[in-house]
Every structure is written in C-alpha cells, then in structure tokens.
Write a structure and sequence with these properties.
Elements lengths: L8 E5 L7 E4 L5 E4 L3 E4 L6 H12 L5 E5 L8 E3 L15 H15 L3 H12 L7 H10 L5 H17 L2 H7 L12 E5 L5 H20 L9 E5 L17 H9 L4 E7 L7 H5 L3 E5 L3 H6 L6 H5 L5 E6 L3 E6 L6 E2 L2 E2 L3 H6 L9
Parallel strand pairs: 1-11, 4-9, 4-10, 5-7, 5-8, 6-7, 8-9
Antiparallel strand pairs: 1-10, 2-3, 11-12, 13-14
C-alpha cells in the first residue's frame, strides 16, 4: 500500500462487465468506471464533492441523471417536483409492469396482504392508457362483500390519495413519459417532496429508467449514469434469506443495459449487502477498520487515523491500494452555475399549479 497524501478517500474496485469510462479525480490520477459505484462517508467528509468531480468528468460524454435529495447539485437542467416536473407514473406500462408498480406502492406504504390484494385486483381491471388517477378510481369502484373488506379498501384509498393530490399528485398525474429525464444531463430536486415520499419518487424514476434502457437492448458499454443520493432509502439492507427488494432488483439488473449507478450513503452497512457486492468501485471517506472489514479489506490503523476530507485510497482486486487526492469540484456543472440555477430553471417555463 502506498500513501501519497495525508488526506485519503478509499476506493475499492472489482472487475466489472462494462467497457467503462476513465474519470480523473485530480490532474494525475483517477478511476475507471466499469460498473456500479458506491460512495460512502459521514456528513462533511467530502463524498458529495467526489460525486460532483465524477460527474464533471462525464459531462459531454454521456447523459446523466441526479436524484438530488437536498438540492446540492447544479445541472444544466434542473427539475423540481410541483414546479416544472410532471409525468405519467404509469406511462408505457403493461399489465406485468402495473403489478410491479403495485408491489412498489405496497413496499413504500407497507400494505398488508388484504390491502395489496385489493390494489392488484383494481390494477388488473385497468385498460390503456394507464394513469394513476384511473387506478385510484378503479380501487374506489372495487366491490366489497362486508364491512371488513370495506375498511381494507378505505385504508388503501387513504394511502393512494396522497399520490393523487398536492405535490405528488401534480408530478405523477401528467401525460408525458418521463423518458425526457434520461436524454441529457439533468437533476431532479427531491427536496421539494416530503422526506417520507422521496424514496417513492426515486423508485418510480428508477423503474422508468429500467424500461427506457431495457427497450434499447443490452450493452457492453456505459450509456448513462444515475446518481442516487441517500441510497439507503431505496437500497436498504435485508437478510440473506429474504427476496431482493425492488430497489435491489433494479440496481442489479440495470448494468447489463449500459446503466451505471452511483449510490451515495453515509455508511456501508446502511446499504444492502447484495448491492455492495455488485459494485465495481466503492469510494469510502474517512472509514473505520470495521467499515473496511465489511467489504473484505483492511488497512493500517496509522493510515486510517490520517484520513481527512478530500483524498483517495484506490483498492483494486485483492485489496491492492493506491492513494488519490480528490480535487475540489468546480462551481459549475455542464455550463450551469449554481448562482444562475433558479434563473435557468424557470426561464421560459411556467410552474405547475399545485392544490
């Protein structure tokens, strides 16, 4: 292991299946992105800066989407739910896709088996064009045999009503397919959405991302990059004997279609072990020895004590390690300065009316 700087960020790489892209983290050194990436570190450790540097290295080469939970990124195109972002949640859906989205709603709202069954029955009766408000109407029209079924149906409607009104209602009941989000370098500012429902919107967008690129066929090269901030909210850890969650399934399957996902979280153990094992690069900021052991590696305690914000250890297969100092990200991203963000966002656009 060689150490070239006192400030260290840890990078763990494994063999990937994609023909990746090389991204410089400073003038001399960088990493090659050949598969999904995990960036972890405590608040203030510099992980967001590292992700911004990676994105700067990709601007103009491939399109990117940032699911921005806290409004920290400046992009050429910024979409804010309830203002200038509106799409059809069920666009391009078939009956199997509808059942997948029902499972998504069941996971987010923690529906019971009877509630899930009511929702599935209503979804199966829908006919194209599929829209969220029509799904709500189908649940309302679902017959009940006794007061127990009536209470179950009302419980489902209470949950779905959240998606049919306010900011979420304005976002999810549009007419357009959300494919426009995947064609350029864009940010979706999820800070406008109540924290409880940010993961729902993120999962819906990941599902449409999967549909968009799977329709274009498999690819052995990176065609698009998506950054998932607060990835623990969609890639939460589960027991080995449990089936993969919806977020895990999307994460594991997207790579074969040329999608590179960058998951960002505070700790390795906040993320599903399946996801960690399937990342080709892990960037760890200010890790402990326990953090390293969770990914099957170790480092000298003296090195770990020297960790500061803004540098990198590159750990390749067999835990070979090199040091990379990460430069500071520029104030602009793709030509859009942070101070100009609001001007660019609303220029020529009319904010959505939200009840």
């Amino acid at each position: 292991m060689c150490v070239r700087a006192p400030n260290i960020l840890l990078v763990l790489t494994q063999w990937g299946i994609l023909r990746g892209l090389s991204v410089k983290l400073n003038l001399l050194s960088g990493v090659k992105l050949e598969g999904h990436v995990l960036v972890v570190g405590p608040t203030g450790s510099g992980k967001t800066n590292t992700v911004k540097v990676i994105l700067e290295g990709l601007v103009g080469r491939i399109p990117a989407l940032v699911l921005d939970y806290h409004g920290e990124y400046a992009c050429p195109r910024v979409y804010v739910p309830g203002r200038n972002l509106r799409f059809n949640m069920l666009a391009s859906s078939s009956q199997p896709d509808l059942e997948f989205l029902v499972d998504l709603l069941s996971t987010v709202f923690q529906l019971t088996e009877p509630q899930w069954y009511i929702l599935v029955k209503a979804a199966r009766k829908l006919e194209p064009p599929y829209m969220l408000r029509r799904l709500v109407e189908a649940v309302e029209e679902e017959p009940t045999r006794d007061w127990r079924e009536f209470e179950v149906k009302q419980a489902v409607l209470r949950r779905l009503s959240i998606l049919n009104e306010g900011v979420l209602g304005a976002v999810l009941n549009g007419n357009e397919d959300p494919g426009f989000l995947f064609e350029d370098y864009t940010c979706v500012d999820l800070s406008a959405v109540p924290p409880k429902y940010r993961s729902l919107l993120a999962l819906v967008l990941l599902r449409h991302l999967y549909d968009y690129f799977s329709a274009r066929g498999e690819s052995d090269r990176v065609r698009h990059v998506t950054v998932i901030e607060e990835a623990w909210s969609v890639l939460w850890p589960r027991a080995y004997w449990e089936a993969p969650s919806i977020g895990e399934r999307l994460f594991l399957e997207l790579r074969k279609f040329g999608e590179l996902l960058v998951a960002v979280s505070q700790r390795v153990d906040d993320i599903s072990s399946r996801v960690v094992r399937n990342c080709s690069v892990i960037l760890m900021h200010m890790p402990t020895q326990q953090d390293l052991e969770r990914v099957g590696c170790s480092a000298d305690e003296a090195v770990l004590r020297r960790l500061r914000r803004g540098a990198a250890l590159v750990v390749e297969p067999s835990c070979r390690v090199r040091v990379v100092k990460v430069r500071r990200a520029r104030d602009t991203a793709g030509g859009c300065a942070r101070k100009e963000r609001n001007t660019y966002l609303y220029k020529g656009q009319k904010p959505l009316d939200v009840n």
